[in-house]
Specification:
Layout: E1 19-20, E2 26-30, H1 38-41, H2 49-60, E3 81-85, H3 98-114, E4 120-124, H4 126-139, E5 141-142, E6 154-159, E7 162-170, H5 175-178, H6 185-200
Helix pairs in contact: 2-6
């Protein structure tokens, strides 16, 4: 169902693919398309409150050409970053089902296979972190014990395209987290400062 503010918009309403720099060293994995964000715009984290926070932080860190993402043709480009999601279609009540997660998993696997330069994977939220952990176990292995999900937690994994990839966890920039102070802009900035440091090491 369309939101009143977007009644005149044509919704994408299809699976939303990842996007960004194909030579990215930093890959971000989110949860799923927002019902009136990327489900409407067709680009991950575009057109909703989570994206407002995320793209401001990416711009400050030099990964995004502009601090806002409103639609697919807004001119925003990503530099050394690629953004994708664990689930590709807007889930019911924003809670992906196990079946959705299983059906979308092969697409994430294919994207990672194509990203040959990845050095850092930033997981946005616990579901994304769990999905990346499942991917690591399927296509590679953890070099260190996998860290329990927490903001700024780090683990090191060996993937087919590169050994020593850091999995860096972050709280998801959802309104539930940002409106309550669970996640602040300095906290999100710290994630991408660390991601750049690791990517350039």
């Amino acid at each position: 169902m369309k939101k009143r503010a977007f009644l005149a918009h044509d919704y994408w309403a299809k699976p939303v693919p990842g996007w960004g720099d194909p030579r990215a060293r930093v890959v971000l994995v989110g949860l799923a398309p927002g019902a009136h964000g990327s489900n409407r715009t067709g680009r991950v984290f575009t057109g909703d409150g989570s994206g407002e926070w995320l793209f401001r932080a990416l711009h400050r860190a030099g990964f995004a050409s502009r601090p806002d993402a409103t639609h697919r043709d807004d001119g925003l480009t990503l530099r050394d970053a690629f953004i994708t999601a664990a689930v590709r279609c807007a889930p019911p009540a924003n809670k992906p089902t196990p079946d959705q997660r299983a059906r979308c998993f092969p697409y994430l696997r294919e994207e990672f296979a194509a990203l040959r330069d990845v050095r850092v994977v930033v997981t946005l939220g616990k579901l994304a972190d769990d999905t990346v952990a499942a991917l690591v176990k399927e296509i590679g292995a953890y070099r260190t014990t996998r860290a329990p999900f927490a903001h700024m937690a780090e683990s090191v994994a060996d993937l087919p395209q590169r050994a020593g990839v850091t999995v860096l966890s972050s709280y998801h920039p959802s309104r539930q987290n940002t409106n309550t102070g669970v996640l602040t802009e300095p906290m999100l900035d710290a994630v991408f400062s660390r991601a750049r440091e690791l990517a350039e090491a």
